[in-house]
Amino acid sequence: MALDYPNFSFDIHHRDEKSGARLGTLKTPHGAIETPNYIFCGTKAAIKALSPAQMIEAKTDIILANTYHLMLQPGADLIEKMGGLHKFMGWNGPMLTDSGGFQVFSLGEGTMANEIKGKSTGKNENRNLMKITEEGCVFKSYVDGSTIKLTPESSMEIQRKLGADLLMQFDECTPYHVDKDYTARSMEMSIRWGDRCLVEFERHDNGAQGLYGIIQGGVYSDLRRISAEATKDRPFFGTAVGGCLGGSEEEMETVVAESLPYAHPDRPVHFLGIGQMKDVFKFVRYGVDTFDCVIPTRLARHGTALMKGQKGETINLKNAKYREDETPLDEENGVSASTDYSKAYIHHLLRAGEILGMQILAQHNVATINRLMREVRASIKAGTLDQLEKEWLDL
Amino acid sequence: MALDYPNFSFDIHHRDEKSGARLGTLKTPHGAIETPNYIFCGTKAAIKALSPAQMIEAKTDIILANTYHLMLQPGADLIEKMGGLHKFMGWNGPMLTDSGGFQVFSLGEGTMANEIKGKSTGKNENRNLMKITEEGCVFKSYVDGSTIKLTPESSMEIQRKLGADLLMQFDECTPYHVDKDYTARSMEMSIRWGDRCLVEFERHDNGAQGLYGIIQGGVYSDLRRISAEATKDRPFFGTAVGGCLGGSEEEMETVVAESLPYAHPDRPVHFLGIGQMKDVFKFVRYGVDTFDCVIPTRLARHGTALMKGQKGETINLKNAKYREDETPLDEENGVSASTDYSKAYIHHLLRAGEILGMQILAQHNVATINRLMREVRASIKAGTLDQLEKEWLDL
Predict the structure, then answer these.
(1) Looking at the structure, do residues B133 and B221 belong to the same domain, yes or no?
(2) Is the pLDDT of residue B282 over 90?
């Protein structure tokens, strides 16, 4: 195939032999980012409670949007007509879209996040997902109840219309509770879906977008290896690790440890839907270059602040102990949300139900994660990642 | 009395003989504002959905906070301990607090706004207000159900602790449906409460705050005149027009027209709780210097944008006709919320339930009102207020 992504590049300019982590520069038509980095979720073409200007103030490099939500509302055609996602939402930096598959296959909003982390009981039913076949899947729109088909080809078409820089192949995201046989058949189908994505992608390729393949295979090391090698052998720009990542932190680590050695060594690696601080420290060591997770903004909506040097990574500002706490969240984040308000004021805002409370926490959390990633990059360069991890996680 | 407000001044530097409007400069320890101007409601020590920085970006000069809400949560003692409202909420400009009376006497949240505008049927009962006596009033806290007494003295004490620049005397805000006898007795009591406020205010006066008297008297011209003259004769820094303003726009205008000629001619005049665009144009002609109203941010939460040159002053961005509208809200407001997003994008955000939609509209609405006030001031100077009114209200 002739896919050479002339407007994209990924340059690994440092490898830390000790930790296994690497430093790279990922170039897109909307600018370059240094890696490791963190991709913030602008699910429905908006970061929850933050404007693009506030994201930039928090030193954000890259965001993503979700194909599934946007295809339903306002629709890919409308976004294309409005000039694409970048123009529509006023974000001029690099952007990623997922394939839509993750949400289609998730068991109602929010539960797939448990699936990824192996917390599902298998009892939930996905009432919106109607059928999965070789062709693709059929599901019911949560917006208007209409029946919608999503295939590798339509996912590519929709992502082309949305116009993000980095795209994801369409894949089936298998849940934790399915057996190895199902996982194997699903993983093989995802490889075929990846091939169909590549064909469809190339048909319209004008150099504006780069396509990631996704490694599936559930918690089974041999399946992960097959999927990783198949992805490596195909002309994707990047590699993503997707699907169920195990029932425990150890299992999740094993999955990654046994996938990435078989992935393409020179392509950027994205870890789908994972992004606690401890995950960042763990998985940069396996060569993960980018992370994404909803937690920075979701935690904010629950009154929770991500903190450097805090056991458990967070504090809950609703807690009565912050009622008279005059200290700001963090003097060193370099953003007004972290430095200009006392914890007592944020506590008051949350108690009073003021939206501003979550806005402040959302910007603080994004700034904290961006600072984490800057410090992670600096420590990889300096060979001090272990020490930085101890500082951040209070080990 | 020795109240001379050495750190405050109000200088009327232009009177437009044709329209009756005036231009002034109101100086406070936290800076000066040009009048006519608009005071935005930061009810619970926060502008709904906007940070202080975003308010400044929208060219805001002055805000207010509500004593009633803050005395209940987080409490005046806490705010004093945290250094006062300015420091607590990060607003370094001029600020006003009301007396707490308005909300105590209101018939549940939101209904007093109808009372002011004469829309009440008289059928509602204020379940939280337990007793009004010469001493003050007793009510139940909506936060924890506890019984709370508010008097002229405690209102002054609380407002002193909150630490705003401009304070309001404690008064009874009489509803529309009460008769003239009740209104007269209430108005006389508010005068006595005003005297008690002045005594209490002076006891602690350190030059940091300026006290407004409030003209009451319901819809009765003779009572309004008595109240206005009593307020003029007392050493208040400013004059506020409060209470029920009639059952129709004409009645509201008559009330103001028959109050302000008897008010102190050199003091700043604030119109409590009134602030549609048409009100601004109408009442600056009677010498009103400042307005306040929750509508800029409340409308935003309902998907509504204040617009220059729009019949009815507003458009509702939820309307399907904005689905593909690529134009921004207003190129001339000089703030990102008005210029950087298409109506189609805001429509999408509102449809998708994204908080960012209301944040954008809140900043746009505040910026629109601030621009209105700048243009009103310029037109008073130029003698073109009539023409500006036609432009803004599409007459």
Answers:
(1) yes
(2) yes
The pLDDT tens digits for A174-189 are 877 789 999 999 999 9
Burial of A240 (0-12, 13-18, 19+ CB in 10 A): buried
Average pLDDT over residues A252-279: 94
Does any domain span residue A1?
no
CA distances from A393 to A22, A34, A191, A278, A312 (A): 21, 23, 37, 7, 7
Kindly give, in sequence order, each residue whose CB lies less than 8 Å from that of residue A44, ignoring residues fewer than 6 positions away.
A65, A66, A69, A70, A73, B348, B349, B352, B354
Spell out the alpha helix ranges (H) of chain B. 52-57, 67-72, 76-81, 85-89, 101-105, 111-116, 152-162, 180-204, 221-232, 249-259, 277-284, 295-301, 336-339, 343-351, 355-382, 385-393
Quick one: which of A228, A196, A193, A198 has its CA closest to A210?
A: A198
Residues of chain B with Cβ-Cβ distance to A45 below 8 Å are: 345, 348-349, 352
Q: What is the mean pLDDT of residues A82-97?
A: 98
* pLDDT in the model for residue B173: 87
Domain final position from B293, B324, B359 = B293
Closest to B374 in 3D by CA, of B25, B38, B18, B16: B38
Residues of A whose CB is below 8 A from B351? 73-74
For residue A254, the model assigns a pLDDT of: 85
Q: How far is residue A164's CA from residue A82's CA, in Å, rounded to a whole number?
A: 14
CB-CB under 8 Å, B324 with A82:
yes
From the candidates A16, A98, A165, A205, give the one annotated as an active-site residue. Answer: A98
Q: What is the predicted pLDDT for the residue at B246?
A: 65
* Segments forming the whole domain that contains residue B344: 304-393
ipTM: 0.94
Q: Is B61 a catalytic residue?
A: no
The Cα-based distances of B279 to A133, A365, B38, B150 in angstroms read 63, 42, 12, 31
Tell if the CB–CB gap between B360 and A78 is shorter than 8 Å. no
